[in-house]
Specification:
heterotrimer; A alpha+beta (489); B alpha/beta (309); C mainly alpha (246); A: 489 residues; alpha+beta; two-stranded antiparallel sheet; 11 helices; elongated; B: 309 residues; alpha/beta; Rossmann fold; Alpha-Beta Plaits; 2 domains; six-stranded mixed beta sheet; four-stranded antiparallel beta sheet; 14 strands; 34% helix
């Protein structure tokens, strides 16, 4: 067949599609469902009155809660300390606190633009099991010498440089951070994030023993003051029951107890935060609609014996299938994109108006989600078309595709206790992997949390997830072409 | 064979509208026992709708359709009153003919023996246990006929039974319909194949635009269509037409004949002889059923193919 | 009615489709229950071993729905519906006969599927988390009834819609979508209301044997909601079937 012949075939299939009123209506309905659910999600949220989510210098939501022994530092200066012990305890039961390792428990030095949550900082610390780290701006994390127990922060102009040492005399530079005001708060801190237990987290608390605490340079004549940064209530600050933050001086040493974290917020620590993917939950309703349409695009031809006419008009059967797939995919993509492009800003605006905090997403991430949603719908429609061509029966084909893409999602999204291995597998190898294209959250290695699809973290990269679905569609289409060629029409 | 109840269908004043289309517009006719009644008319004239109304499948806005004096819904075992073959009612493709008839028999309280009887009657025995999906159109028609005969009904209603039949099947079907009538059954057969009706039907109901436009015996219809016309076989058609028209006749040309009306045969012969026009034959013009049908439905055709230029 | 039932039963047993779908229902239900109990066996999957063992019904119901849809759409697809209604002019009788036959088949297959799932559950989750006998019995009987109700619901929807693909889309949408959509509803009140009126989340409350007070709706009331959906669908279907031309 010539190129022109294929264009004619496309034109014929397009005419077939647009002249069945129910299909046009169904496609518009699919797009509308995306928008309507976004409206529902936006309107129904009501978080007004809940405390504001702390936001870091980069605009991202953060956890900023720790015990801080500090005093102001004006101009250049240096602060040094030795960490002689870091012990952590995990709340294994409501009233049961047992010693245990908290890998990201932190004890060390911090220079911070005031004690407001979310303000800029630079910190160097000993951790539960990740050695010495230097961290800043909530998201940056640099590894230092693992066995060092001496820590130092030097302030010079707007820069803060971190050093670590095993003996207090030979120092290794770990990193430099820029951009601080002239007067900052400097001191020691202790914090201890919740520990991941199964599919949830339990509170922990850390106690560190500091020695040789020295602050040199621009002192304002203040003295050390102990404060909880973040929520004042111990429970809200993340302490296990019957514990709280404290600092006790003894024999020239300082024993500080603290809980919380200085880190980017993730789904596990900010459960009330909404995501773009949630705004787009209507995608599922649209999916079922396009699965039905995709199936019908071929099965009605078998039911009405139109297939004989179609194949008589263009005897190369795989070409017919490809033409159908292109027309169906194109129409679905356009409808899905229209739905997503309207739904996302609308849903987000409504949700924010109701005080719901939404995890931020860069404009290009938003665009990826919208394009990805359209591609997800289009690819699923093509998969339905291929399965419909193989089955020739509407109900079986629709159920198969729904079971392949919606059921795995239902499992991972509905059952919080589903073992991580299972949900990981389900979102890697089933067509439901494609929902990764809608995710906007990123896991952080320095935050221990439950990064499962249930919490909106997919194991595959966005386009890789979509590629899994595309793989299914292509293989099904090829199989359908073979079946169509071998079988009597 | 057990004696038949009276049988027969009385359709009176059926009206039905689909949106803006008046599908049935006062359809009335009667189907008598012992006769094959042909039900003819152009596509869309209301034949299939009428048959579905008779079978209680479609509702009407007005009018009644009675079988044995009762509406279809009032029949206790409907298939023993009226058997039917509808155009677009295929069996399930993966069910065999025998099983299709079996469930139908069970719905009427009949058993498998009757099923085997009707299968034999329509000559489907060899294929009866194969899946119906693989049947040819003709085999499916035979299966439909078997279903219609299942209850040994006094009234039989068949929508386009000649569709898809090969010449052998058509001959079989014709004899079969005659035999049903000969057994005293009332048989209503819709068709657009006039030639079939001419050889099969005793009586014709011609429909157009949702109503019966003729309800008469086949013989009467042909006689009426023939009128009192004469056919003059001649090589000098122009001369013949000139002299006959001058004598007061209405004339029309055929291939090698001239059709004449308005003059008796003797006068035609005289006029031709006086005018010196050669002719080989003057005979009564005999119309076909096709002619009669075309005459009747000329105004009623809704979907007429455009005349090719 | 007796004759109509006999006819419907003959229809059901003379094609392979229903048989395979019923066997499929059993296989899928038991297999998925086994998969869930096996993966959860070691992990902490909540304390309700009975409910866990019956998870397969969430998947099995999809095949039951196909069966319920095909019972009627096959006839519309081929035009056989006219033969059926010519043989059984009382359309309510025709629909009820279909419903009764379908219920019988699904109940039989459902019983095997549910008992099989429980047995597999007992083997993979031995001896812990099982509630009192009468609660387990309620979950068992309830799950069987649930599958039958889903079949009837599907039959009703399919009779209304008359197209297989669209019907199954509507049925699966109502079953599986509502729980997903409920997660985005920010208001806990409306979220709960959705779970109370959705055919699947309400109906499957019958499977719970522990933590009954935390359910969105009480077990029997939940199954009642599913029954209400089925009744509403079948009643509408019956009215439309009577009014529409076949």
């Amino acid at each position: 067949m010539t190129k022109a012949g294929f264009v004619q075939l496309l034109h014929a299939e397009w005419t077939k599609f647009r002249t069945v009123q129910a299909w046009t209506v169904g496609m518009v309905a699919a797009a509308l469902m995306v928008v309507i659910v976004a409206l529902l999600a936006g309107v129904s949220g009501d978080q007004s009155g809940s405390p504001a989510v702390p936001v870091g210098p980069g605009g991202e939501p953060v956890t900023d809660s720790f015990y801080f022994v500090h005093q102001p530092l004006a101009g250049d200066g240096s602060i040094t300390v030795s960490v002689s012990a870091l012990t952590t305890s995990i709340a294994t039961g409501p009233a049961d606190l047992r010693p245990g390792t908290v890998p990201w428990a932190k004890a060390g030095l911090i220079i911070k633009d005031g004690t407001r949550q979310g303000s800029a900082y630079a910190a160097i610390m000993v951790t539960g099991s990740h050695g010495v780290r230097m961290q800043d701006s909530y998201v940056n994390d640099t590894a230092g010498p693992a066995s060092a127990r001496w820590l130092r922060l030097d302030r010079s102009g707007d820069a803060v440089t971190g050093h670590a040492s095993t003996d207090g005399t030979h120092w290794t530079k770990v990193g430099t951070v820029h951009g601080f005001a002239s007067t900052v708060e400097a001191g020691v801190f202790v914090t201890s994030p919740p520990s991941v237990e199964g599919m949830g987290t339990v509170p922990t608390v850390a106690t560190a023993v500091f020695g040789d605490l020295r602050l040199q340079g621009g002192r304002l004549g203040g003295h050390w003051a102990g404060d909880q940064v973040g929520p004042k209530s111990s429970t809200f600050a993340g302490y296990p029951r019957n514990t709280s933050g404290s600092a006790v001086e003894s024999d020239g040493g300082l024993t500080v107890t603290g809980a919380g974290d200085i880190a980017p917020a993730v789904r596990g620590t900010l459960g009330s935060g909404g995501t773009t993917r949630e705004i787009l939950t209507g995608t599922f309703a649209a999916l079922i609609a396009v699965i039905v349409l995709g199936t019908q695009f071929i099965t009605t031809e078998y039911r009405d014996d139109l297939i004989h006419v179609t194949l008589a008009a263009s005897p190369r059967r795989s070409r017919v299938l490809v033409a159908k797939a292109i027309v169906l995919g194109g129409v679905t993509f356009v409808a899905g994109l229209a739905g997503a492009v309207i739904a996302v800003p609308l849903g987000e605006r409504l949700a924010r108006a109701n005080g719901v905090y939404l995890f931020p997403a860069e404009p290009w991430v938003q665009l990826r989600v919208e394009l990805g949603t359209a591609a997800l719908l289009a690819t699923t429609a093509i998969l339905a078309l291929a399965v419909g061509a193989m089955f020739r029966r509407g109900a079986g084909a629709v159920t198969t595709v729904v079971a392949a893409i919606v059921l795995p999602y239902l499992l991972v999204a509905q059952i919080p206790f589903l073992p991580a291995g299972v949900s990981d597998w389900l979102t890697r190898v089933t067509p439901a992997a494609a929902f990764a294209v809608q995710q906007t959250l990123v896991p952080y290695h320095q935050v221990a949390s439950v990064y499962t699809p249930y919490n909106d973290y997919y194991p595959l990269a966005p386009w890789a997830g979509l590629a899994v679905l595309a793989g299914y569609a292509v293989v099904s289409l090829a199989a359908a072409a073979v079946v169509l060629r071998r079988r009597d029409a | 064979m057990r004696p038949h109840r009276t049988g027969g269908i009385v359709v009176a004043g059926l009206r039905k509208r689909y949106g803006t289309t008046q599908a049935l517009d006062g359809m009335s006719f009667t189907v008598h026992p012992g006769l094959v009644t042909g039900f003819v008319g152009p596509n869309g004239a209301g034949k299939s709708t009428t048959m579905r109304v008779i079978l209680g499948l479609d509702a009407v806005d007005a009018g009644t359709a009675l079988i044995d004096g009762k509406p279809y819904h009032g029949l206790r075992h409907p298939l023993s009153h009226v058997g039917s073959l509808l155009d677009a009612s295929a069996p399930h493709p993966s069910r065999s003919a025998r099983n299709h008839l079996l469930w139908l028999a069970h719905s009427q309280g009949m058993g498998a023996e009757r099923v085997d009887q009707v299968i034999e009657r329509v000559g489907l025995t060899s294929a009866a246990r194969r899946k119906a999906g693989g049947y040819s159109l003709g085999m499916r028609q035979r299966l439909g006929i078997a279903a219609a005969l299942l209850g040994d009904p006094p009234t039989v209603l068949l929508d386009e039974p000649f569709n898809g039949m090969d010449p052998e099947g058509i001959i079989w079907m014709r004899g079969f319909l005659r035999s049903l009538a000969a057994q005293g059954r009332a048989v209503l057969v819709s068709s657009h194949l006039m030639s079939e009706m001419q050889d099969t039907a005793d009586h014709l109901v011609v429909v157009g635009r949702g109503r019966a436009i003729a309800d008469a015996s086949v013989a009467d219809l042909i006689a009426a269509a023939s009128g009192h016309r004469l056919a003059v076989r001649t090589t000098a058609q122009r001369d013949a037409m000139t002299v006959l028209a001058r004598a007061g006749a209405t004339v029309a040309t055929g291939r090698d004949t001239v059709t004449v009306s308005g003059l008796p045969a003797e006068r035609v012969v005289t006029v031709l002889n006086q005018g010196g026009v050669p002719f080989s034959e003057v005979s009564a013009h005999r119309a076909t059923l096709e002619d009669a049908y075309l005459d009747l439905t000329r105004d009623a055709v809704e979907y007429r193919a455009e005349v090719s230029r | 009615m007796r004759l109509a039932l006999h006819a419907e039963w003959t229809k059901t047993r003379t094609v392979a489709g229903p048989r395979w779908l019923l066997l499929g229902t059993i296989a899928v239900t038991v297999a998925m229950s086994a998969a869930v109990t096996a993966t959860c066996g070691a992990a902490r999957c909540g304390g309700d071993a009975t409910k866990l063992s019956l998870t397969g019904a969430v998947f099995g119901q999809a095949l039951v729905a196909i069966l319920g849809v095909h019972v009627i759409t096959d006839e519309y697809g081929s035009g056989m519906i006219r033969t059926t209604l010519a043989a059984i002019p009382n359309r309510t009788t025709a629909l009820v006969a279909k419903a009764v036959t379908l219920t019988g088949c699904v109940t039989a297959a459902g019983t095997v599927a549910v008992l099989g799932s429980l047995l597999v559950g007992r083997l993979t989750l031995p001896g812990h988390g099982y509630a009192a006998m009468f609660l387990v019995l309620r979950a068992t009987v309830g799950s069987i009834l649930y599958l039958a109700l889903i079949a009837l619901f599907s039959l009703g929807i399919a009779t209304i819609v008359r197209d297989a693909a669209t019907s199954i889309g509507v049925v699966l949408g109502l079953l599986y979508l509502v729980p997903i959509l409920a997660t985005v509803i920010g208001s806990p009140f409306w979220q709960r209301v959705l779970e109370q009126i959705a055919p699947m989340s309400a109906g499957l409350a019958i499977q719970a044997t522990t933590d009954l007070h935390s359910l969105p709706i009480s077990p029997w009331a939940g199954l009642g909601v599913t029954a209400a959906w089925a009744t509403a669908a079948l009643t509408t279907a019956g009215l439309l079937l009577r009014r529409r031309d076949a």
